[in-house]
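Hey, I'm writing a tutorial for new members on how sequence and structure tokens pair up, and I'd like a real worked example in the thread rather than a made-up one. If someone can provide the structure for the chain below, I'll link this post from the tutorial.
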Amino acid sequence: MTDALTLAKAQEALQELGLNRCVDLLAPSAEWASENDATYIGFLVRLLESEIDERRTRRLQAKLRAAHFPYHKTLADFDFSFQPSIDERQIRELAHLSFVADGHNVVMLGPPGVGKTHLSVALGLEAIAQGLSVSFVTMQGLVSDLRRAHAENRLESRIKMYVKPKLLICDEVGYLPLDALDAANFFRLVSERYERGAMIITSNTGFANWGSVFGDPVLASALLDRILHHATTINIRGNSFRMKDKLRSGLAQSHVGVVAEQATE
């Protein structure tokens, strides 16, 4: 059998096994092995590692698409010097993701624009890099989705979809008050994830005002009991990043946002 026929036969076998990256790299890998006097094992390892790398990349891309992040921002992109109220060491510790493994929560409180969403996305990206499933949703998008599912008699399956990810990021809690149905649906979701799946929650509203947000102080108390039982609370006090350049150039007056209340367990 000629080298060309042998190569074609090997490519067909790899194709049948679903090793598509190996198919693409078989010929150049064989050439590399010949030029470098590689062993059969060395050639095989090189070929299979390329397949593993390709599959790892595809899985990562699939998880990124499934997460529905509003943008791609990492911890390296965050300007900690602009927000001195944030303990950078604490954020770096959270990036180790033990809170996700333990099914605990992170709550970020602070006025608009101080970096709550950026940090949440950055931690979500760290989780995906470690092979964990992540889902990002705004509070308004979440309750609208659950309300629709309730009307269509498929709330159960929709709740399960939000329970499934290892990390659920719920952004902008408290920006708009909720009606009784939306509040009840969110409470059920939090209850389903309690001690089973980690959450990152961002809010510009102090905990003392959650009774008004959820329209029921008793429900809000029960909700906070579950969220804060195993939680790290981060209070961010400072100016909006959207005003950073103007503030630094002296074109705008520094302003202090509403200070979120410190949570206690």
